[in-house]
Amino acid sequence: MPVDVIMPVLGVAQDTGRVIRWLSAEGDAVRKGDPLIEVETDKVTVELEAPADGTLALVTAQAGDDVPVGSVIALILAPGEARAPAVETVPARAPASPLARRMARDAGIDLPALATRLGRPVQAADVRASAAPADAVAPVAAAPAAVQPVGAVAAMSAVWRTMAERTLASWTTAPHFAVQREVDAGRLLSWQQSARRRTGVHVTITDLIVRAVAHTLRTHPALTRSWSESGLVTPPSIGVGLAVALDDGLVVPVLHDADGTDLAALATQRAELVGRAREGRLEPRDVQGGAFTVSNLGMYGIDAFTAIINPPQAAILAVGRIADRVLAIDGLPAVRPALTLTLSCDHRVVDGARAGEFLQALAETLEEPALLVT
User: What is the Cα–Cα distance from 243 to 316, expressed in whole angstroms?
Assistant: First the structure.
């Protein structure tokens, strides 16, 4: 019997996958386990392997196509096997983005019928167009507006589109609040220089903050929990996500077991992860298992900002630049290197007191790194 090549589920919130390119052409002989196709999800680009030996046939998804997960996108025929009937590319369940589903539900639109009519996954713009009254009078414009490509690409990528939908969902469903703390960074800078000399590794300020965050989360586990309708979920380990900006969006690779990894290994892992993220070579495991996220914009000269929580997590730390500021030292003004930390939390999971306790403990660790065993 033919073996189906299926668009897999590679993420919890994934509805579709985008075909980047086929590594074998229709009619080619393939072997089980050989790379067959490159697929882009909301977070990563991965190579899928051939599920069987045989001949690639009935390819129904081409480069650039967004395909609902679970769809059959090709067949692999055994030697001497005849071609099977055409593959149904639109499954019975309504393939649509999360935002499109919500909009369709609110507007009373038959999503399965719309998906069948379009012959592809339904996006928010499709629902918006279907909801417009047929006799609506379009406004008169002097000239058509130019469409600026998002992220300097010709079309919105799956990464950017999913980032937009997830941040909207986070902002509109999680009751955000933020607490802020200014930190004397003098000893933090000394710790960085000492760590570089001692380990021979290019340790960054981000590495030190991630290490301190993971250490502080040990004694403040409430910040690692996530909200669910059945109760609060505690992760099995402390994975710290790191926001990485790409040309076409934002990804959050995860430093697993960050509280149990020594500083040199953590810095090496961070550099390797960020490099693969920017090259589009992250694997599913690299973006799964995060309990908390750190977003650092200090390298862009940003003093302070408030970040949006990365669902399903309940907290994210925004880090500003280190700059000379006037601080009160023993009751007297002094110019010291300082940075601002802003902690955003989901109030369903974390209250103000717990957020304040965490940020206070983190600040004390950064101001006196001797509190942290590296």
Answer: 10
What three-state secondary structure class fits 347?
coil
| Burial of residue 129 (number of CB atoms within 10 Å: 0-12, 13-18, 19+) | exposed
**Strand, helix or coil for residue 22:** strand
- C-beta of residue 114 within 8 angstroms of C-beta of residue 127: yes
Residue by residue, DSSP assigns 271-328 as HHHHHHHHTT---GGGGS--SEEEEE-GGGT-----PPP-TT-SEEEEE---EEEEEE
Collect all residues with Cβ–Cβ distance below 8 Å to 323 and sequence separation of at least 6.
303, 337, 338, 339
How close are the terminal C-alpha atoms of the chain, in Å?
Answer: 57
Give the Cβ contact number of residue 365 at 10 Å: 21
Average pLDDT, 10 consecutive residues per value, the chain (374 residues): 83 71 91 89 77 90 83 86 52 59 77 74 72 50 50 55 82 94 95 94 96 96 92 93 87 93 95 90 87 96 96 95 92 94 97 97 93 62
| H helices present in 46-93, as ranges | none
CATH architecture of 174-371: 2-Layer Sandwich (3.30)
For the chain, residues classed under CATH 2.40.50.100 are 3-77
Compute the residue count for the chain.
Answer: 374
Strand partners, 16: 68
Return the DSSP state at 65. Answer: -
**Range(s) within the chain of domains with CATH label 3.30.559.10:** 174-371
Range list of β-strands (E), 223-279: 240-242, 244-246, 249-251, 254-255
Tokens representing 84 are 């099977």
Site of tokens 């009160």: 328
β-pairing, 332-346 vs 244-246, is unpaired
Pairing outcome for strands 66-68 and 16-22: antiparallel
CA distance 313 to 254: 12
Report pTM. Answer: 0.69
Q: Tell which CATH architecture fits domain 3-77.
A: Beta Barrel (2.40)
